[in-house]
Structures are given as structure tokens and as C-alpha cells.
Specification:
With 307 residues, the chain is α/β, with parallel strands linked by helices. It has two domains: 178 residues, FAD/NAD(P)-binding domain (3-Layer(bba) Sandwich), CATH 3.50.50; 120 residues, FAD/NAD(P)-binding domain (3-Layer(bba) Sandwich), CATH 3.50.50. Helix content is 22%, strand content 30%. The protein is built from six helices and 19 strands. Strands 1, 2, 5, 6, 7, 8 and 19 form a seven-stranded mixed beta sheet that branches. It has a five-stranded parallel beta sheet with strand order 10-17-11-12-13, covered by helices on one side. Strand 11, helix 4 and strand 12 form a beta-alpha-beta unit. Bound molecules: flavin-adenine dinucleotide (FAD) and NADP nicotinamide-adenine-dinucleotide phosphate (NAP). NADP nicotinamide-adenine-dinucleotide phosphate (NAP) binds next to helix 4.
């Protein structure tokens, strides 16, 4: 027989853990399902400097502290990958790769994943010089030259992180202005180990069949091509929503982000979405936990109204 909870939260990142805290503190039975370790993207972040209460805190340390809070009132962490949700009216059926779980309310907090560039060599050299996670792989490039592709917060912050380990970091951006927050831009421009290649697209990752040796770059203003030698290629060109498992529900926009109202409710009664997976302007830890608190409270109201 399927296990049954009042509230099932899918994803144990900062959003999901906060929703689990709020719903369990309201005395509901709560399962928080994740296919990886709790913490979500915080596990891929070194220093977090914009989480109130801390001048700076390591991502995994904040993840652990949030996990302790989220389970303090009885919410259970359940390991599993959610493959589908079926809306059965007052009950929702959540199917993981190993079991079926029913819930009165489902809160989707599955976040996002890194977008791929889709250029030759990217897939071939994945794990052999191409990376999407500086915190995970940076140490392999001690005293080596690396490139970072992208101009957003991830590219610039991870570039700064890599500069502490590597010999040099070349940021390659398709425009002549960064998208990253001003404070990060100022730090990057003042960093002796970082240099910038503007108005340029990386068209190929080059290698010697075993490992990355560089990238082929085309200047999109002059159409000139050059090769930049590098041992590592870190790609930060944006995010894609993790919503493949929920496509059948028809709750996403054309790009796959889940659309909600101000109460985090989707168009299906009893199904909420929070954090990065939601269509929103600012994807941060603080906004994910704000969404999570609201959804936890809304779950309470929904269940009370349907008693
Ligand atoms: P996530 O943290 O992405 O968590 C989603 C969870 O859902 C994951 O654990 C995943 O395993 C799980 N999951 C996904 N699909 C399934 C499924 N089908 N079944 C089961 N589980 C599933 N924000 C800041 O405020 N400050 C920073 O300094 C900062 N630095 C960042 C650095 C990088 C490199 C990146 C990429 C992001 C950074 N952010 C930062 C953004 C911040 O990490 C995110 O906004 C935040 O983690 C979003 O939280 P979330 O709970 O919505 O999703
Ligand atoms: P992002 O903000 O979407 O930036 C993606 C970058 O990649 C942009 O500079 C974009 O160029 C470039 N790009 C996109 N597609 C490209 C392509 N095909 N070829 C070349 N370049 C391409 O993504 P992100 O930096 O990963 O950030 C994602 C979210 O997480 C954001 O909301 C961000 O604020 C948040 N985040 C926050 C922090 C923090 O608060 N400290 C840290 C990291 C991430 P254009 O600029 O030309 O569009």
C-alpha cells in the first residue's frame, strides 16, 4: 500500500526544507523527497554572503543547519527521484523511482539545472576538463589556466572562486557588459588573475582526446576567430527548470518554469511550487525560503479548508 502523508515536498533545497519546516510545525505529517543529499544548489556554493545573519557562510554548512531545522518538527527526509505526480482530486499520488506516496498537498521545489551550450567537444570532454561546478571540480585545476563562459552571477562568482586555485581565469562573455551583481563585477575587475574576452562566443571545446586543451572562440563583432589555451572550461550560461516529471500537469509556461499565484498555488488545487523552479524574477536562497514559508502556511489553510 502507498505511504501516506498530509504534505509531500519534492526537493530538499532551501525552498523545500523551509516548506517542510512550516508544514510540520503546523503538526502535519510531512515527507521531503530528494534524489540527492539535502541542500540543493547550496552544496555547489562556497561562500554565501547574501544570507541575512551571516557575514559569510559556506553553502554546505547552511544546508546542514537548514536540514536540522526542517526535520526538527518531524518532517521526514525520503530518498528518491520523483518521476510523476497524478492529481486524483483531494489526493495526489507521487510516484518515485522506488515507491508511490499519497498526499493531500504537494509542494514542488525541484529547482533548476545548468544549461548546456551544445557545442562540439562539450559533451565529449565532460568530466575531462569541462565542468559546471567550480566548487566540485576547481581543485583539479590547481595552478592551471581555465576559462569561464557566461556573464551572470554564477560565472563571475565561480570565476572569483577559481582564481584562488588556478593560475588564471579567462571569462568569455557574448556581450561587452556583465549581468552579474555590481559587487561581484567590481571584485572580478580588480582581480589580477582574471581577464575578460568580450563580445565572443565559444564555438568548440578543444582537446587531445584525453583532456581539454582549450576553446575556439569567435568575436561576434569582427567575426575573427582565436584559440584560447586552457585546461578547464567552466560553463555558466544559465539555468533550466527541473520540471520534466510534471509536464503532464500543464502547470508550466512554454520554457518549463512553473507558474503560480502570489500564494505559490499552481492552477491545480493542492499543488504548490516554490523556489527556483517557479517563474520569477530573482532566484536566490532568500527568495526560495520566502516561497517555502508561504507554501507551508498555504498547505495548512488548504488542508483545514478541505477537512
Ligand atoms: P535547489 O537548491 O535547486 O534544490 C532543488 C532540489 O530538488 C535539489 O536538491 C534536487 O536534487 C531536488 N530535485 C530536483 N528534481 C527532483 C526530482 N524529480 N525528484 C526528487 N528531487 C528532485 N543564491 C544566493 O542567495 N546566494 C548565493 O551566494 C548563491 N550562489 C549560487 C552559486 C551557484 C553556482 C548557483 C548555481 C546558484 C547560487 N545561488 C545563490 C542561487 C541559489 O542556490 C538558488 O536560488 C537556491 O538554491 C534555490 O533553491 P530551491 O530550493 O528552489 O532549489
Ligand atoms: P543567468 O543569470 O541566466 O546568466 C547566464 C549568463 O550566460 C548570461 O550572462 C548570458 O548572457 C550568458 N548566456 C546565456 N546563454 C548563452 C549562450 N548560449 N552562449 C553564451 N552565453 C550565454 O544564470 P546564472 O548566472 O547561472 O544565475 C542563475 C540565477 O542564480 C540568477 O537568478 C542569479 O542571480 C542566481 N545566482 C545568484 C547568486 C548570488 O546571489 N550570489 C550567485 C549565483 C547565481 P547575457 O548576459 O548576454 O544574457
Amino acid at each position: 500500500m502507498a505511504k501516506s502523508y498530509d504534505v509531500v515536498v519534492i526537493g530538499a533545497g532551501p525552498g523545500g526544507m523551509t516548506a517542510a519546516l512550516y508544514a510540520s510545525r503546523a503538526n502535519y505529517s510531512v515527507a521531503m523527497i530528494d534524489r540527492g543529499i539535502y541542500g540543493g544548489q547550496m552544496n555547489n556554493t562556497a561562500e554565501i554572503e547574501n544570507y541575512p545573519g551571516f557575514k559569510s557562510i559556506l553553502g554546505p554548512d547552511l544546508a546542514k543547519a537548514m536540514y536540522n531545522s526542517s526535520t526538527n518538527f518531524g518532517a521526514e527526509y525520503v530518498y528518491g527521484s520523483v518521476e510523476a505526480i497524478e492529481d486524483l482530486g483531494d489526493t495526489k499520488l507521487v510516484k518515485t523511482d522506488s515507491e508511490e506516496i499519497t498526499a493531500k498537498v504537494v509542494i514542488i521545489a525541484t529547482g533548476s539545472e545548468y544549461k548546456k551550450l551544445g557545442i562540439p567537444g562539450e559533451e565529449e570532454y565532460g568530466g575531462r576538463g569541462v565542468s559546471y561546478c567550480a566548487v566540485c571540480d576547481g581543485a583539479f585545476f590547481k595552478n592551471k589556466d581555465v576559462v569561464v563562459i557566461g556573464g551572470g552571477d554564477s560565472a563571475i562568482e565561480e570565476g572569483i572562486y577559481l582564481s584562488q586555485i588556478t593560475n588564471s581565469v579567462t571569462v568569455i562573455h557574448r556581450r561587452d557588459q556583465l549581468r552579474a551583481q555590481k559587487v561581484s563585477q567590481d571584485r572580478a575587475f580588480a582581480n589580477d588573475k582574471m581577464n575578460f574576452v568580450w563580445n565572443s562566443n565559444v564555438v568548440e571545446v578543444l582537446g587531445d582526446e584525453n583532456k581539454v586543451t582549450g576553446v575556439r572562440v569567435v568575436n561576434n563583432q569582427t567575426n575573427t576567430e582565436k584559440i584560447i589555451d586552457a585546461s578547464g572550461v567552466f560553463i555558466y550560461v544559465g539555468l533550466l527548470p527541473m520540471t520534466k516529471s510534471f509536464e503532464n500537469l500543464g502547470i508550466t509556461d512554454k520554457d518549463g518554469w512553473i507558474v503560480t499565484d502570489d500564494h505559490m498555488a499552481t492552477s491545480i488545487p493542492g499543488i504548490y511550487a516554490i523556489g527556483d523552479v517557479r517563474k520569477k524574477d530573482l532566484r536566490q536562497i532568500t527568495t526560495a525560503i520566502g516561497d517555502g514559508g508561504l507554501a507551508g502556511q498555504e498547505a495548512f489553510k488548504y488542508i483545514e479548508a478541505h477537512k
